[in-house]
């Protein structure tokens, strides 16, 4: 069976893919790796970056002898997937991204990173703090500033910018019409910059993956990969 990697976003967890596993396992050997700092994975002393996550993806494929792999990446997972395809196109069959932010400027990154203050989250959104602790353990308070640094680094040096035209594999860029982090415009711009891409806008869909209707997403996944 072909291999499918499901990649979570920043502060996300592979548990988010549970509603999709039964269906997708009929067509693929499904892998749900965790990026470092997430779940039970340690936060590296040297911090995290999109380059580090791309390297982790590369190592995961190497250790598991994965070639010609298909990838679905939510949010930052989609960004890492495209970075990996840019570096190792021979290893990647095709990619779907959903809710992946492409327009990273320093100003944008600083704005996003300011929302990642553990004390503010504890005070203003305690139920989100509880979720982060249940998924990532007590280190969630260190993970937040590490992700903020990753965003600021992305704003200063977005590795995909000006390189989309070099990624020739089939790609489907997807965005929810109610996503308040990613615009339809930036998704459309990237879709037009890629040589072999499709674009899908999901109706009545917000950014978090647990707010996406599984039946809608599965239909789009099946259509892209010709699964019947």
UniProtKB/TrEMBL annotation:
Residues 2-107 form the AB hydrolase-1 domain. It comes from the Bacteria. This is Pimeloyl-ACP methyl ester carboxylesterase. Pfam families: Abhydrolase_1. One of its GO terms (cellular component) is membrane. It comes from Chryseobacterium rhizoplanae. InterPro entries: AB_hydrolase_1, AB_hydrolase_fold, AB_hydrolase_sf. Gene3D superfamilies: alpha/beta hydrolase (3.40.50.1820).
């Amino acid at each position: 069976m072909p291999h499918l990697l499901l990649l979570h976003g920043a502060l996300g967890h592979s548990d988010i893919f549970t509603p999709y596993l039964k269906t997708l396992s009929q067509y693929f050997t499904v892998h749900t790796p965790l990026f470092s700092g997430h779940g039970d994975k340690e936060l590296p002393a040297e911090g995290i970056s999109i380059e580090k996550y791309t390297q982790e993806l590369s190592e995961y494929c190497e250790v598991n002898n994965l070639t010609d792999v298909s990838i679905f990446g939510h949010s930052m997972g989609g960004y890492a997937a495209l970075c990996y395809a840019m570096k190792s196109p021979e290893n990647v069959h095709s990619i779907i991204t959903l809710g992946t932010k492409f327009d990273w400027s320093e100003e944008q990154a600083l704005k996003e990173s300011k929302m990642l203050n553990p004390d503010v989250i504890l005070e203003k959104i305690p139920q989100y703090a509880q979720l982060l602790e249940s998924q990532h353990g007590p280190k969630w308070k260190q993970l937040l500033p590490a992700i903020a640094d990753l965003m600021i680094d992305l704003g200063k040096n977005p590795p995909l910018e000006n390189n989309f035209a070099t990624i020739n594999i089939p790609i489907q860029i997807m965005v929810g019409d109610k996503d308040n982090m990613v615009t339809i415009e930036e998704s459309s711009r990237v879709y037009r910059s890629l040589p072999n891409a499709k674009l899908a806008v999901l109706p009545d869909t917000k950014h978090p993956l647990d707010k996406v209707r599984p039946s809608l997403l599965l239909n789009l996944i099946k259509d892209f990969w010709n699964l019947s």
